[in-house]
Design goal:
There is one protein chain. This protein has helices at about 15-30, 40-55, 70-80, 105-135, 155-175, 195, 200-210, 220-230, and strands at about 10, 30-35, 60, 85-90, 135-140, 180-185, 240-245. A 7-stranded parallel sheet has the order 3-2-1-4-5-6-7, sandwiched between helices. It has a single domain, classed as NAD(P)-binding Rossmann-like Domain (Rossmann fold), CATH 3.40.50. By secondary structure, the chain is α/β, with parallel strands linked by helices. It has 8 helices and 7 strands. It binds NADP nicotinamide-adenine-dinucleotide phosphate (NAP). NADP nicotinamide-adenine-dinucleotide phosphate binds next to α1, β2 and α6. NADP nicotinamide-adenine-dinucleotide phosphate binds near residues 15, 16, 17, 38 and 94.
């Protein structure tokens, strides 16, 4: 692998779901991909194996994205092999309480806000120096439609992701002069993910019925939007949000 001839993307939380699919798609576009994970080493190794079997380049690197020292160590490993990060896809999903405001404690709500913003802050700080130096970079954050449209018991995730989306807009304003675009991909409910596995059949059917395109998103649908924002094709969109929800919610 030659860092000089290929873009390098860091996909946080790429051992499963949307992150894994995004890592696979970016690799098919000739990007060398860092498959970050926290606990699921074998799953991350499988994503790397899939990418390599398809002729792409990837490495799995364990790091808790809330921990600056762990993220620095991860980037040192990447740097030694491939150089700096050109594309950040911040996708990792830290745990959160699913319950009403009535039942929620401040530790649960405040803890999720802290985790969400700390992770975004830490990874963004870590990747920016290379992007600024080269005058080119792509920052893409995974949001959720729940940050605009409340759903029962999702107050912790929806509130934290709303903060993340506004954080991205502020970054877009500040980093535009450095040639860095910053965008958010905001999926509706996505099938074949851990959260979709806990929905019962009735809930899934109601979501499909509320979706003009007649099905739930798949991880690959979300990955396509991320890949556009990551590419040279996106020369002039920054501070935007792409809703990948089949028309379930329009704004
Ligand atoms: N699924 C949906 O329906 C849906 C809808 C809207 C938005 N989204 C957004 O899309 C993103 C991905 O969702 P998903 O459902 O695909 O997630 P997921 O399958 O639950 O995967 C979460 C990933 O995050 C990693 N992770 C968790 N904590 C971490 C940490 N502290 N440091 C590093 N990695 C960490 C996990 O790694 P390990 O397993 O290795 O611990 C895993 O790879 C999230 O930001 C989510 O909010 C999802």
């Amino acid at each position: 692998m030659t860092g000089a001839t290929s873009r390098v993307a860091l996909v946080t939380g790429a051992s499963s779901g949307i992150g894994a699919e995004t890592a696979r798609l970016l690799a098919t576009r000739g990007i060398a991909v860092v498959v970050n994970y926290l606990h699921s080493g074998p799953a991350a190794a499988q994503v790397v194996a899939d990418i390599e079997a398809a002729g792409g380049q990837a490495m799995a690197v364990q790091a808790d994205v809330r921990d600056p020292a762990a993220v620095e160590t991860m980037l040192e490993r990447v740097s030694a092999a491939w150089g700096g990060i050109d594309v950040l896809v911040h996708n990792a999903l830290t745990p959160y309480a699913i319950k009403s405001f009535q039942d929620m404690t401040w530790e649960e709500l405040g803890g999720k806000l802290d985790d969400e913003m700390r992770a975004a802050f830490v990874v963004t700080k870590a990747v920016l120096p290379t992007m600024k130096e080269q005058g080119w970079g792509r920052l893409i954050y995974l949001g959720t439609g729940l940050s605009r449209r409340p759903r029962e018991e999702m107050i912790a995730l929806g509130t934290a992701k709303a903060a993340l989306t506004q954080f991205a807009r502020y970054l877009a304003q500040e980093l535009g002069p450095d040639g860095i675009t910053v965008n958010v991909v905001e999926p509706g409910p996505v099938a074949e993910t851990k959260i979709s596995a806990v929905l019962d059949e009735g809930q899934t059917q109601r979501q499909v019925a509320a979706t003009p395109l007649g099905r739930l998103a798949r991880p690959a649908d979300v990955a396509q939007a991320v890949a556009f924002y990551a590419s040279e094709d996106n020369a002039f969109m920054t501070g935007t949000t792409a809703a990948v929800n089949g028309g379930m919610s329009m704004y």
